[in-house]
Here is the input.
Amino acid sequence: MTTLEGMNRAIRYIEEHLDGDIDYIEIARIACVSQYHFQRMFAFVTDITLSEYIRRRRLTLAAFDLRDSSNRIIDIAVKYGYASADAFSRAFQNLHGITPSKARENGTTLTTYPCITFTLSIKGVSAMNYRIEEKEGFTVVGIREFTKTENSENSINIPKMWKKLPEETFAALATLSDREPGGVLGVCGDMYEDGFDYWIAAATSKPCPEGFESLSIPACTWAIFEATGSLPGAIQQLFTRIFTEWLPTSGFEHAPSPEIEVYSDGDNKNPEYKSYVWIPVVKK
Here is the structure.
């Protein structure tokens, strides 16, 4: 089964369970990838998180039920996973701009989010330079912030995090760096339903200083990609291409381990600037 087929089978499972419990582990099993990989790929391809997609689809169907049936609002709320009519009303109004009771009136405008279907798109005109390497485990030390992935918020929040990084913190991390990958790194850590922890850190064998946190990176196989171009655009475009072009056709899948951004010295606004992305992978 191809990655495309797996993603569409997972969407069918979601559609069949919108009025019940949806198991994220089962979604990933149906797609024949890890839960981490499915959620990352879904967010890159659709530009929303999996949980947000499910929320929008449930509220779309709830609008149909309100319009086409005489069921009580509380019964429709419970059907689509809301514990109270108030919680349902708030969510419904946030999406549709009107209350559930208003949705029952003739001529009311509602918002619809159709079911997603993944289809083949011809890409890959531009070359992608990468290599596969086995690495022992190591530790990174640094600071972290949680960033949401909904509506590509991470593409906005992560550059802001770098911009506000104090010079003394950057210098301290640069001093801590004493092993590969060298320099001050960006690390995409633990993945949650609505986002992930992003670290600005350094790979080190030294003790974790006060004011910093440490993260253990396990031994694994890495697909290491090269990006050429000014930041943050070049690195963001590379991530998108990795998840939408390389991973679906590579024979690898994402391993349950953090991703790493490696930045070279020099002017990161230069169109010839070099940066790298390390993706943990396992053979399918």
